[in-house]
Specification:
The protein is α/β, with parallel strands linked by helices. It has ten helices and nine strands. It has a domain of 214 residues: TIM Barrel (Alpha-Beta Barrel).
């Protein structure tokens, strides 16, 4: 019995001692780490307000709300839903005074990264490229070519045709190049053959055609695509002719020419005749009717037998020249058509060195048009 009391008293003393130690520790920790009043929590009655911001990235409708997708990647995007959760006045935010950059905001967060524009940091506008139609590599090199008159004193075909000596023992092959301004013509000039150049009638620089002629080559006025066939067709063609001085004739467009129309063909040949010029058509595109009308007016005429660079491959172009040679040997003459592209020029230069080229005489197109 005495032992049970002794054990009970020891337990009570332990509990009391533990309480005393806990109180002492609590007081000590409270003095070392005083309590901080917590911030008030937001509630639906008093929500935390944030300044509404928009993700403005470009000019748009000021009435639109939501996210505007724009182009300034330097500013931090802010997404705004467009609706506030509370109807109470928003909490006033501290404002930081900044100096105005005096630059109009054109969207994309320009105000966040505004740059002050001064005469020193305004970039200069890049120079506007000037397209010069005159080829720098077309310069008079043939001293035997007489200077061109400012205006034809007779028939343009006779005045501007290149003097040429025919070899009656060889058939004639005329090569007409449409100048597309895609490649240098130096190799053609160095070849020393009498080529003919078709200059677009839409060309605004008359010196282009004169440069070709003064270099020793004949010139044709190339009609553009989709010439309107209307009551003003004659005036339209005359305008194209005036843009290409020193031209000996008008060549129809091989894509959408006007010679497929009988009335338009007659107007074209009559207009060319009034200007003392001949005409050239493409085989299978109204050339039969055009030839008959040209004979009626006693004006020079020619028909392109083959477009040699339709495929645009070197071997195919040389093969087309071989076929044109056979046509010339059979008919006495042939006219081929190509564009001033690197592949066309290179193929012609290589073909001129072949035995097949020796079977024909390369002539100015006027030689064939006189027949």
């Amino acid at each position: 019995m005495a032992s049970r009391r002794k054990n009970s008293g020891g337990f009570s003393q332990g509990v009391l001692y533990g309480l005393i130690v806990s109180v002492v520790l609590f007081l000590g920790l409270s003095m070392a780490f005083p309590l901080v009043e917590p911030a008030p929590l937001a509630s639906m009655d008093n929500p935390v307000q944030t300044a509404p911001q928009a993700f403005d990235v470009g000019p748009g409708n000021p009435d639109d709300s939501g996210v505007n997708m724009g182009g300034n990647t330097d500013s931090t995007p802010n997404i705004s839903g467009g609706n506030n959760l509370s109807t109470e006045a928003p909490v006033e935010q501290p404002m930081v005074a900044t100096q105005s950059a005096a630059v109009p905001d054109i969207g994309g967060g320009a105000g966040n990264n505004a740059i002050e524009v001064t005469p020193e940091n305004i970039p200069e506008d890049p120079p506007t490229p000037v397209v010069v139609a005159t080829r720098p590599d077309v310069t008079p090199t043939n001293e035997s070519v007489p200077s061109l008159p400012d205006a034809a004193s007779g028939e343009a075909f006779d005045v501007f045709s290149v003097p040429f000596t025919r070899n009656p023992d060889l058939p004639m092959l005329a090569i007409v190049f449409e100048d597309t301004l895609e490649a240098s013509l130096q190799q053609l000039f160095n070849a020393g053959i009498p080529l003919t150049f078709a200059v677009p009638g839409t060309m605004q620089d008359p010196q282009v055609s004169r440069s070709f002629r003064e270099t020793g080559f004949e010139v044709l006025t190339l009609l553009p695509e989709n010439v309107p066939i209307d009551a003003n067709l004659s005036e339209t063609i005359a305008g194209y002719i005036s843009n290409v001085p020193a031209s000996i004739g008008v060549i129809d467009n091989n894509s959408t020419g006007i010679m497929v129309d009988g009335t338009a063909t007659q107007i074209l040949i009559e207009t060319a005749a009034v200007n003392g010029m001949g005409t050239i058509a493409f085989a299978g595109a109204g050339d039969v009717n055009a030839r008959n009308l040209a004979r009626f007016y006693s004006k020079p005429f020619g028909s392109v037998h083959r477009i040699i660079d339709g495929i645009g491959e070197n071997a195919a172009i040389k093969n087309a020249l071989d076929r044109a040679t056979l046509t010339a040997q059979t008919s006495g003459s042939a006219i081929v058509y190509a564009r001033t592209r690197d592949v066309s020029i290179q193929a012609l230069i290589e073909w001129l060195a072949s035995p097949r080229a020796e079977r024909v005489q390369i002539v100015p197109v006027s030689q064939i048009m006189r027949q």
